[in-house]
Amino acid sequence: MELDDLRTQIDKVDNQLHDLLMERAEIVLEIGKYKAKSTQPIFHPARQMKILRRLIARHQGSFPKEVLLRLWTEMMGAFIRMQGDFKVAVYMPERGSGYIEIARDSFGAYTPIVDCGIVGEVIDSVKSNQSSVGIIPVSRNENEAPWWLGLLSSRKDTDLRVIARLPVGGAGEGRGEGKEAYALAKMPYEETGKDNSLLALETKGSVSISALKAIFDEADIKVKNIVDKYDMPDESHAFLLEVSGYMGNEDARLEKIRKKKDSKISLLTVIGGYAVPFSAKELK
Asked: Does the domain spanning 14-34+43-81 belong to CATH 1.20.59.10?
């Protein structure tokens, strides 16, 4: 087959891809109308992650999976914006901090960004509905009070929640400088089938990390990581824990811990969670 013949085939495939993209856009507009009538949010992170997992699982051939992931993420960002106003508030204390790149890689290069110098500004922007989603660092500056303390008493679905951990496919080369971020939004954290949950808690007086883990082991909850710890003025402690699996605030295991007579935990709240990001092995 001659080169011109191969290029003709490429043109034909390009037209087919373009036709399907336009068809998908029309369907998205109809979905947007339905969401507007039912007051559903236009952004549905659990649904998006399920789509990405399905595509990566069925992918064959030499086209790189990480590029496939990037293409679909970019398209999804555009489709979200077609359904309504969508802005992302991003923690950016200085240029080159990496979180703008994470936001654009996760929600599309043309998604409107609201720059915020401190984490509190990100949270305020989402709480006041100026932004749909907020991007904050996983690691906290030790000189700052934990952002998650403000979520300890929040139990409503419309309260601020962690709904994703970014980037879902690893940082692009030369982008984000290896940083990771949480995405926050005023929506429930939903199960995807492969999740981790975030628990915030306060203790009654001083409690060691080993004793804390033992409490959760007894309740059959696997603590993957202690993300953050904060020493309270009255010698009690606050912790942010990452645990395996999806967990809601009404989980019977959490209720067991809360109701235990000699419990060393005074407050315990699920403040969200996330679909487990793709590993490097999954994208090979």
From this structure: yes
